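Quick one, C-alpha cells below:
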C-alpha cells in the first residue's frame, strides 16, 4: 500500500485513503511529461484481461479507447474495489491510480463522490490530461459510482444491476427485432409493426388525391408506425421536428405536385405550415388539421395569458430590446408580440445561436425569451457556464464571443417565468434522482425544454461526450452518430444505451433509423444494438381493470389528472389527438381536385383575419413577420437587417418594420 502511494505521489497524483483537500500542482512541461511517462509505465505493468472479461456488460461508454470495468466487494470488510482494463496504456495507468484511491471505501461513499473534486484530488488538472482523456476519466469514475450504487442497493435474490423498484422501461433495438422491458415499453413497441391493410388504404388515398403529410416526432407510435411504412410507397410523408414541417410541405407542393397537406401536430404547427405556404405563393393549397376542435399546447396557452402580456409590455419599455419567441406559439401571439417589441421566432434547434448572434450583432441589446420557462432557465444556465469557460471553448459555440462578452450579456438576458410544456415539465424529482444514481454511465439525451435538474444532468454528460441537449432532431442525430461511430470502430457485441429525455413518441423514428443502419452490417456486427430507456415515473403508469391482452399496464395518467409532477409520463395528450382514424377521415373527404370540401371547414387552421397591432396587417400577416425573420436568420446566420433596424429604432417610430424577404 505504501509503495503504491509513493508511486502515485511520484506520478503527481495524490491518492489518499481520505481526502486531504489539497490539489497537487503540476509545474512545467518537463514535470508533466515525466508524470505521464510514469503513468504509461504503470499501465504497461497491468495484466491484460481475457476476452471473456472484455465484454459488453463491463464496457465503459464515453472513453476515447475501449475500456472495461468490474466492481466487487472487498474480501474483508464492507468496502468496494474496482478493476479496469483498457486498450490505452495511459488509461490503464490513470485507472489504476483511481482504483487504488477508492479501494476499501464504502460503496455508498463512492456512489456520492464528486467526480470533478476527485479528479482534482488526484491531480488531474486540464494541464495534465488532454480533453479527450479528461472526459474519459470522468466517464470512468461515473461508471464506478454507478457500480458502487448497485452494490449498495443490490437485491441479492436476483442480482439486478438496477433495483426493480426504480428500473426504467426500455426498448432494445437490433437489426431485425425490438425487445421491450416493462409494460410502458411494450405499449410503445406494439405498433412498430403496423397493420399493412391500414397502410395500403392510406397510401391509396394519398396517391390518388396527391396529399402530402407532415407529422411531428411526438405522434402516437401507432400513427408513426403506419406513416413510416406508408412513406416507403408514397414519398410525400415526412416525420420531423417542427422546424422542418413547413419546409417539407413547400417541397411536397413544388416538387411533388401535392394539392393538399395534412398536418399531424398541435395547432401552431398547422398555422406555421399555412403561413409558409402562403409566403411561398401557394395559397391555393389546402392545409388540414386532424381535429375539428382545438389541438392545444400548454406553452401556446401560456403565451396568451395576461402575465405574458405584462412581460412583453415591460420589454417594450426597454430600449434596444428583441423578443425571441419559441415557435410553439400561435400566430396571434406572434402578431401581438410583434406589435409591442421587435420579435423573431426560434426553435430548440436554433435558439442558442439566435440569442448569441443577437448579442454579437447589436451592442447593448436586451433579449427577452419566452414563453418556455425551462428553456429560458436552461439558456441562462448555459450562458452562466460559458462565462466560466476558456475563450476557445466559447468560440466553438459562437466565434464572436469570449468570456468577457458572455459575462457582459448575462444581466441583459430575460426569460418568462410562468410557462412550461406539460410533457417536459415531468422530468424532475424522482426521475432525475434515478438517472443520477443508476444511469450516469448511460448516454443522456434531453430536449431543451426539460426542467433544470434534467438539463444539468444532460449538460454534464454532454461535456464529457456522453450526452446531448437540443431539439428532437438533435437527439435523433446524436443517437445515429454514436451508432455510426460504433460501426466504424468495429464493435460487434456492444449495446449502446440512451436515456430518452423527451416525448416517447420519438421511439418510432429512432427504431426506423437505427435498424436502417444495423441491417446492412448485421453479418459483421451481429451483437450490436441500441437500447432506448424511457425515464418515466411509476406514477405515469395506469393499470386498468381490463388491460390490453398481454399488458399489465399502459402509459398514461392516474385519476385523469395528468402525469405525476415528480416524474414523467413523457406523452403529450394534445399530440395524441392526431389519430389514424382522423387522418383517414380527412383524406377520404378531400375532393380529388384538392378543393375544399364543406365538411372539412372545421379542420382548417385559424385564418386570423382580424386587424393586428401592426398597422396595415392582419393577425396572420403580422404573425408571419417573426417567422420570416427566423427563416432569414437560417439562410444567412445573421439577423435580417430589417429586424436589426427595428430593434435599434423601435423607440423612435410608431410603426413596425417588415422583414426582408
Amino acid at each position: 500500500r505504501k509503495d503504491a502511494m509513493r508511486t502515485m505521489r511520484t506520478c503527481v497524483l495524490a491518492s489518499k485513503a481520505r481526502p486531504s483537500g489539497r490539489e497537487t500542482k503540476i509545474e512545467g512541461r518537463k514535470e508533466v511529461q515525466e508524470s505521464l511517462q510514469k503513468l504509461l509505465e504503470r499501465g504497461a505493468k497491468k495484466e491484460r484481461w481475457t476476452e471473456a472479461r472484455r465484454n459488453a456488460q463491463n464496457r465503459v461508454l464515453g472513453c476515447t479507447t475501449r475500456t472495461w470495468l468490474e466492481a466487487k466487494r472487498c474480501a474483508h470488510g464492507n468496502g468496494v474495489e474496482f478493476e479496469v482494463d483498457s486498450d490505452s496504456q495511459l488509461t490503464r495507468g490513470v485507472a489504476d491510480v483511481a482504483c487504488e484511491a477508492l479501494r476499501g471505501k464504502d460503496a455508498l461513499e463512492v456512489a456520492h463522490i464528486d467526480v470533478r473534486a476527485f479528479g482534482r484530488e488526484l491531480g488531474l488538472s486540464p494541464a495534465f490530461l488532454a480533453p479527450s482523456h479528461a472526459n474519459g476519466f470522468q466517464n470512468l469514475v461515473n461508471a464506478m459510482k454507478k457500480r458502487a450504487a448497485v452494490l449498495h442497493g443490490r437485491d441479492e435474490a436476483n442480482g439486478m444491476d438496477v433495483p426493480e423498484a426504480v428500473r426504467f422501461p426500455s426498448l432494445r433495438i437490433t437489426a431485425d427485432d425490438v425487445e421491450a422491458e416493462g409494460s410502458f415499453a411494450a405499449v410503445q413497441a406494439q405498433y412498430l409493426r403496423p397493420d399493412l391493410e391500414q397502410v395500403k388504404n392510406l397510401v391509396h388515398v394519398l396517391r390518388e388525391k396527391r396529399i402530402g403529410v407532415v407529422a411531428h416526432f411526438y405522434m402516437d407510435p401507432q400513427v408513426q408506425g403506419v406513416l413510416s411504412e406508408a412513406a416507403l410507397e408514397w414519398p410525400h410523408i415526412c416525420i420531423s421536428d417542427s422546424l422542418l414541417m413547413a419546409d417539407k410541405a413547400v417541397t411536397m407542393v413544388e416538387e411533388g405536385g401535392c394539392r393538399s397537406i395534412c398536418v399531424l401536430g398541435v395547432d401552431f404547427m398547422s398555422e406555421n405550415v399555412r403561413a409558409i405556404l402562403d409566403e411561398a405563393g401557394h395559397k391555393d393549397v389546402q392545409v388540414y388539421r386532424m381535429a375539428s376542435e382545438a389541438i392545444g399546447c400548454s406553452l401556446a396557452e401560456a403565451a396568451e395569458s395576461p402575465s405574458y402580456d405584462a412581460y412583453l409590455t415591460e420589454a417594450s419599455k426597454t430600449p434596444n430590446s428583441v423578443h425571441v419567441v419559441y415557435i410553439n406559439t400561435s400566430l396571434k401571439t406572434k402578431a401581438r408580440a410583434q406589435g409591442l417589441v421587435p420579435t423573431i421566432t426560434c426553435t430548440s434547434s436554433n435558439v442558442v445561436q439566435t440569442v448569441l448572434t443577437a448579442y454579437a450583432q447589436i451592442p447593448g441589446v436586451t433579449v427577452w425569451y419566452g414563453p418556455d420557462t425551462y428553456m429560458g432557465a436552461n439558456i441562462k444556465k448555459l450562458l452562466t457556464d460559458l462565462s466560466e469557460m476558456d475563450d476557445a471553448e466559447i468560440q466553438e459555440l459562437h466565434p464572436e464571443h469570449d468570456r468577457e462578452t458572455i459575462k457582459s450579456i448575462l444581466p441583459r438576458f430575460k426569460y418568462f417565468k410562468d410557462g412550461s410544456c406539460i410533457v417536459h415539465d415531468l422530468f424532475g424529482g424522482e426521475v432525475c434522482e434515478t438517472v443520477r444514481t443508476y444511469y450516469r454511465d448511460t448516454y443522456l439525451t434531453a430536449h431543451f425544454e426539460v426542467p433544470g435538474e434534467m438539463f444539468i444532468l444532460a449538460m454534464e454528460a454532454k461535456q464529457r461526450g456522453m450526452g446531448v441537449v437540443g431539439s428532437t432532431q438533435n437527439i435523433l442525430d446524436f443517437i445515429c452518430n454514436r451508432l455510426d461511430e460504433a460501426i466504424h470502430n468495429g464493435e460487434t457485441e456492444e449495446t449502446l444505451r440512451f436515456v430518452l429525455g423527451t416525448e416517447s413518441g420519438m421511439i418510432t423514428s429512432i427504431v426506423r433509423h437505427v435498424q436502417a443502419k444495423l441491417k446492412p452490417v448485421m453479418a459483421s456486427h451481429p451483437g450490436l444494438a441500441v437500447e432506448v430507456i424511457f425515464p418515466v415515473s411509476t406514477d405515469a403508469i395506469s393499470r386498468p381493470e381490463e388491460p390490453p391482452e398481454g399488458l399489465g399496464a399502459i402509459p398514461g395518467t392516474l385519476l385523469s389528472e395528468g402525469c405525476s409532477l415528480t416524474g414523467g409520463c413523457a406523452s403529450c395528450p394534445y399530440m395524441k389527438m392526431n389519430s389514424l382514424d382522423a387522418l383517414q377521415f380527412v383524406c377520404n373527404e378531400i375532393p380529388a381536385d384538392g378543393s375544399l370540401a364543406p365538411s372539412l371547414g372545421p379542420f382548417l387552421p385559424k385564418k386570423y383575419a382580424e386587424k393586428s397591432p401592426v398597422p396595415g396587417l392582419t393577425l396572420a400577416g403580422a404573425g408571419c413577420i417573426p417567422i420570416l425573420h427566423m427563416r432569414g436568420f437560417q439562410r444567412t446566420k445573421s439577423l435580417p437587417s430589417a429586424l436589426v433596424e427595428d430593434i435599434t429604432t423601435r423607440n423612435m417610430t410608431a410603426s413596425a418594420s417588415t422583414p426582408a424577404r
